[in-house]
TrEMBL record:
InterPro entries: FhuF_C, IucA/IucC-like_C
Pfam families linked: FhuF, FhuF_C
Domain Aerobactin siderophore biosynthesis IucA/IucC-like C-terminal: 65-190
Protein name listed in UniProt: Ferric iron reductase protein FhuF
Coiled-coil portions: none
Length: 249
């Protein structure tokens, strides 16, 4: 295992990496999200905190915030050829607020990773399995069952941030552009379903639809296929890629 340097840790703070534990009832050990009773109680508290209409909305927002863990992990994988230790026991979600929004951070008990070997393709496949099948899927399964929400929504809540990472963040670093393109193609198009959990097909592929041009903003966006329900919270705002908004463009 290789311990990340201070410079690397600082670079990951843009993805909500934190160093300190927060004394808050909304901070939680990741492993606790796998317990039906605990995750049920947590969603009830979170619903009240963010003004969510119901537990389904709270679950969607929770996973949307949780998406920054895969972003952090994949940035390390692509930029530094490091496979972070994201065992459930090594992580906690630390509650934070910014401009009235609940934007929790992630704290690693041990911030270290395993370097890529001679066969990077095999290492990458193992890294993707560790992230999605071993870490993310059990949490999505737990949250989905408790809140009775479709995993189609939860997976899209994650993949939209992977699009951001690989189409916006990493391409800004010229030396990483080629590797980022190859890793992105593998994750979204080539990776087999079993790397993501109990799937025959890659659950992320369905969301990689074409972007459309929005004249009012002058930007290209990729409309979501599902709604994340963020408008059913205190903010009352819809996302810029909301399917309800985009269908009228």
């Amino acid at each position: 295992m290789i311990r990340l340097t201070k410079e690397q840790a600082d670079a990951l703070r843009q993805f909500r990496l934190v160093s300190n534990a927060e004394n808050s009832s909304f901070s939680i050990e990741t492993k606790e999200l796998l317990d039906p009773g605990t995750v049920g109680e947590y969603l009830l508290k979170l619903k009240q905190h963010i003004g969510a209409a119901d537990e389904k909305v709270a679950a969607s927002i929770l996973v949307k915030r949780y998406a920054f863990l895969p972003v952090t992990y994949l940035y390390c994988m692509t930029a530094w050829n490091l496979k972070l230790d994201i065992s459930h026991e090594n992580l906690s979600l630390e509650s934070q607020e910014k401009n009235g929004l609940w934007l929790p951070g992630f704290r690693f008990k041990n911030l270290w990773g395993k370097a890529a070997g001679a066969d990077r393709n095999q290492w990458r496949e193992d890294a993707i399995r560790s992230l999605f099948s071993i870490h993310v899927f059990p949490i999505l399964d737990s949250v989905a069952k408790e809140a009775k929400i479709s995993k189609l929504i939860l997976w899209e809540n994650i993949v939209i941030y992977l699009f951001w990472l690989y189409e916006t963040v990493l391409p800004e670093e010229p030396l990483l552009a080629r590797q980022a393109s190859e890793d992105f193609k593998f994750i979204i198009e080539e990776a087999s379903g079993d790397l993501f959990g109990r799937y025959n097909e890659n659950p992320l592929k369905r969301y990689h639809n074409k972007k459309i041009f929005v004249e009012s903003t002058g930007k290209m966006i990729r409309p979501r296929k599902t709604c994340c329900f963020s408008y059913l919270t205190n903010s009352g705002k819809r996302c810029g890629t909301c399917p309800q908004v985009c269908k009228n463009l």
